[in-house]
Model the fold of this input.
Amino acid sequence: MMHRNLHLSLTFLLLMTAGLFSCTTKAQSGASFSSLPVKEFKQAQSASKGLLLDVRTPDECAEGIIEGATMLDYSAPGFMDGIKKLDKDGPIYIYCASGGRSRQTMTRMKGLGFTKVWDLDGGMSAWLEAGQSTVRAGNASKR
Done:
């Protein structure tokens, strides 16, 4: 009987500690950073009306961009200055050609205090493979 009470007490203590930790962590962070597949990326960006950021080069963008995207060249000298001017609390959806530069950008943004950043898993390659449309780069804004 004593062993059972000890077991129940330890289980209760463990559950309380886990519950307290998960609530505290969630409340403290409130941040979201992840890679999303094409369908989820498109739905999330459309629903939130967040900033859509294309971090490819001008030559890559000339081949087509996702409608509504703002271009900010990852390889440009003022790239990080441009990133720092963005709203740190607003939702931001990033993509590049295959996902590498956008994930690196997302990581940098996390370090700068941004709170809601997602990147397109597989980048423009995945977008096109999924049959999604693009528009000419002249229909977008540059930062």
